[in-house]
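TOKENISE THE FOLD
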Amino acid sequence: MKVVQRKIIHDAGQSLSLAHFPHLSYPLHCHEEYELVIVTAGTGREYIGHAVENYRAGDMTLIGPDIPHLHLCDSLTGKNGSEESACEILYFSPSLFPDNMDGIAEYRAIAAVLEKSRRGVRYSDPALTRQIRKQVQRLDKGQGIGRIRWLLALLDTLARSQETSLIASGPVRNGTALRRQETVDTVCRYLREHFRENLCLQAIAREACMNPSALCRHFRQRTGKTLFAFLAGIRIENACRLLLETRLSISAIAWETGFANLSHFNRQFKSLTGQTPGEYRKNIRSGVG
């Protein structure tokens, strides 16, 4: 069966949103967001990849990014007297989380449940569902960073629940998602190998075999950074190494790491490290930095 690629559209300036579905009719589909499904009415079957599990009102499922899934309502399959299914779905972007989340003690429980979401995590405790729905409603009414705090609190609650089961026996693989990740990996490798050069967007796009505009959108969605912010990070990382390990002048280091303009190098360096190159070299060698 063909998997439909959906694009979740959040309100302007937001990375998470709550949607209400009075009935479930989407075909097998996937998207780049995590989603928390809260079934508010009806019964049916939930497909996560090739795995299937029955659902009923009060159940919740956490589903990872790019996981093909489908909710097949009993009322649509001809079961007599079946109530039409309805649900609330919280969508949230992977870019909200740090890359090394499992290495940060405070995030570890959340990192673990997000990893499990690649298999579909089912919650069937009515008391937990009521608690989570209240948290979702507060999140939906919140503004700014408060919405992120509510999301993290919600995920922490889910992570600590003992009343869970995994729908799929192993992580669900999506060939399209894997190809998208391979594209990002190709671009990252290219930038690391060629950061000393005067790179342009067209050359990077040719390496990735993508349209430049599409590549920019795709890279930011997958990494949370623009192409050139990622490139600047690589260049400054290497500049820091040269400042520590060599006696090269600052202008020579700027040139060696791909900056043709010394003032631009100084601005980028201070923006990313909070210090000028000279201050960094002095502090790191004296043990202050």
Remarks:
- The chain has two domains: 4-166, 175-286.
- The chain has a mean pLDDT of 89.
- The chain has ten helices and eleven strands.
